[in-house]
Amino acid sequence: MLVDSHCHLNFPELVQNMDQVLDTMRSNEVGHALCVSVTLDKFPEVLAIAEQHPNIYASVGVHPDYEDIQEPTVEELVRLANHPRVVAIGETGLDYFRLTGDLEWQRHRFRTHIRAAKATGKPLIIHTRNAAEDTLRLMQEEGAAEVGGVMHCFTESWEVAQAAIEMGFYISFSGIVTFKNAQSLKDVAQKVPLDKILVETDSPYLAPIPFRGKTNQPAYVRHVAEEVARLRDVPLQQFMETTTANFFKLFKHAQPCKSLS
């Protein structure tokens, strides 16, 4: 079965239809999902979903887009990550697209997350947009390679992917790779080593073809998998098995669950 390596099940569009979301996952052979934290105040919602459903995991972190919110400390992230359902630190990283001006606070927050990941031994979920050079630089300066992680919703160049892979990071493709105008990303998807690929939805956002423009959900990760498998001329079943194995190799605190309830 497939794994949706990055979604936001606590967001209103999905949490109010949780039973249906889980049923649709099952019917599309999506066995597990990682529900990703974006703010500390909403982290209890993320954790509650993971506690209620054995095939859903949680992360803890603060997204770089949120400026005027509770700032995380290494100590707090470590404390919150000390829970068996929390398998990763993030999402974290840098975003120079939505925000401008002096963004040193973003870089400080990113460093905090890397240090927390190293303290917990749990991998990083990294968001980068219009900030690849600084993202890679901070990863190198802070020793992110010690814990590894995933470059989520990847949209950067092959050179950026290579640099991240060299630090032990996986490359995760979202519904964007199914878009007709995403040829450069399709090219990257053909080059990343198969044992370094993950797939995700980033739901409720970025629904793949044929659902583009609609609310995304974890079940739709199947369409991402189908497209990347097609691009690589790999049998879908093999691709599903490999990316699922990749997920559990990276997120080693996540235990596979046979139940899809």
Architecture overview:
The chain is α/β, with parallel strands linked by helices and 261 residues long. Strands 1-2-3-4-5-6-7-8 form an eight-stranded parallel beta sheet. Helix 3 links the parallel strand 2 and strand 3 (56-60). The chain contains ten helices and eight strands. The mean pLDDT is 97. Helix 5 (104-120) packs across helix 6 (132-141).
Helix count from the secondary structure assignment? 10
Number of strands: 8
Helical percentage: 25-40%
Listing every helix as H and every strand as E from the N terminus to the C terminus, the arrangement reads: EHHEHEHEHEHEHEHEHH
**Sheet bearing the most strands, described?**
8 strands, parallel
List the strand order in the largest sheet.
1-2-3-4-5-6-7-8
DSSP strand content? 15-25%
The secondary structure category is alpha/beta
Distance between the termini: 15 Å
Which radius of gyration do the C-alpha atoms yield? 17 Å
Mean pLDDT: 97
Report low-confidence residues grouped into runs of 5 or more. none
Shape descriptor: globular
Please give a quick description of this structure.
The protein is an alpha/beta fold and 261 residues long. It has helices at residues 12-15, 18-27, 43-52, 74-81, 104-120, 132-141, 158-166, 183-191, 221-232, 236-250, and strands spanning 2-7, 30-35, 56-60, 86-95, 124-129, 149-151, 169-173, 197-199.
List the helices and strands and how they pair.
Blueprint: E1 2-7, H1 12-15, H2 18-27, E2 30-35, H3 43-52, E3 56-60, H4 74-81, E4 86-95, H5 104-120, E5 124-129, H6 132-141, E6 149-151, H7 158-166, E7 169-173, H8 183-191, E8 197-199, H9 221-232, H10 236-250
Parallel strand pairs: 1-2, 2-3, 3-4, 4-5, 5-6, 6-7, 7-8
